[in-house]
Amino acid sequence: MTIDPVAVGGPGLPQRRRVLTEIPGPASLALHARKTEAVPAGIGTTLPVYVAAAGGGVLLDVDGNSLIDLGSGIAVVTVGNSAPRVVDAVTSQAAAFTHTCFMVTPYAGYVEVAEALNRITPGDHAKQTVLFNSGAEAVENAVKIARAHTGRNAVVVFDHAYHGRTNLTMAMTAKNMPYKQGFGPFAPEVYRAPMSYPFRDGGADGPAAAQRAIDVIEKQVGAANLAAVVIEPIQGEGGFVVPAPGFLPALVAWCRANDVVFVADEVQTGFARTGTMFAIEHEGLVPDLIATAKGIAGGLPLSAVTGRAAIMNAAHVGGLGGTYGGNPLACAAALAVLGTIEADELLERARSIGEMLIERLTALQRDDPRIGEVRGRGAMVAIELVHPGGTEPDAELAKAVAAAAAAQGVVVLTCGTYGNVLRLLPPLAIPDALLAEACDVLADVFTALS
Length: 450
Prior knowledge:
Elements: H1 5-8, H2 26-38, E1 51-55, E2 58-61, E3 66-69, H3 72-75, H4 84-96, H5 108-120, E4 127-132, H6 135-150, E5 154-158, H7 167-172, E6 190-193, H8 206-220, E7 226-231, H9 247-257, E8 261-265, E9 289-292, E10 303-308, H10 309-312, H11 328-343, H12 346-366, E11 371-377, E12 380-385, H13 395-407, E13 410-411, E14 413-415, E15 421-424, H14 432-448
Parallel strand pairs: 3-13, 5-6, 5-7, 7-8, 8-9
Antiparallel strand pairs: 1-2, 2-3, 4-10, 9-10, 11-12, 12-15, 14-15
InterPro entries: 4NH2But_aminotransferase_bac, Aminotrans_3, Aminotrans_3_PPA_site, Class-III_PLP-dep_AT, PyrdxlP-dep_Trfase, PyrdxlP-dep_Trfase_major, PyrdxlP-dep_Trfase_small
Keywords: Aminotransferase, Pyridoxal phosphate, Transferase
Cofactor: pyridoxal 5'-phosphate
């Protein structure tokens, strides 16, 4: 069955779950066979369901199945697939021009996005922004800027961190498989400190966990050698780890006292995902630099580093940039995303989604000892699965739950250093009824797998 995405209309798709074939269906399987021949095996596919259209909270596949989307393309389409303001903005920009390269002949859209990010990121100090394509590029350039500013080389990251797939950001990423295995040697001068992980570190409070990390940094690196501390305010791929209250403030205070640049990697947490515009705001903190991507442009490739003007200006002329960085189509999309967040009150929507998910999943946890913890903020919620009676990770259960949910038309992603975490990242455009139905399916899946 061939679906015409123009005919069905992305954002106008019926908001319902509908399973017409086995998932994946025959048309998806045929496409996947072609993918296997044309695309290297290194590009994995979590769920080989080939999408023809998407909108609201559903994905319509080429077999006519309508799946509930709890992944948002890994936190990218926060405002929804084919969000009307984004579609209109990109269409208009494409009709004008698609590319000139901002470093050759610039255009207003780049400047407007930079101005918007300077305005909405935490802190009222003078800021500047530079645009790139991917989250990894943003993180890597944040490190470049911090090194130029401080004249130091060392970078500290944390256990369970994920920062990207470039050589430097692979070194910064904690998890070996599949991200690092066989791809070394990696960039030097990257050091790892222990993360606050309340479920797995004996319940240490935030200040105590921070002191443990600071002790490692001071003994193994030395503040005088350190350019930057880079951390996700809520870890993404590492398992949606929410640090204990007080952990991040203590790190920021130590960085300030030692002239170390504090970098918030908000690639997955930014742009309303956690119920604030940026996750670092939950503790009232102001980073020196903030790296953003994913939800910034509604699915178009765009990322940014925003930070204190005195730090951002450290790099020499020509030291930052890239041919496609701040592409005009992506800039148009980003401005439309920011407009959508404000006009549709998506900060409040993210908080509402989080409340619903936490309530439903906590109720499920009370009756199921395999659910070790339910955690998260806003529309960024995780279920950590363990073997009953302890905290031993159960990655096989996580894999089984995700597969069984997909078979019933609900897309759920896994994550975590141990592969035992289910992560829920619904688009903020998802209707309440569809979200409740997805929770019902998950409950049925846990029962069936008990």
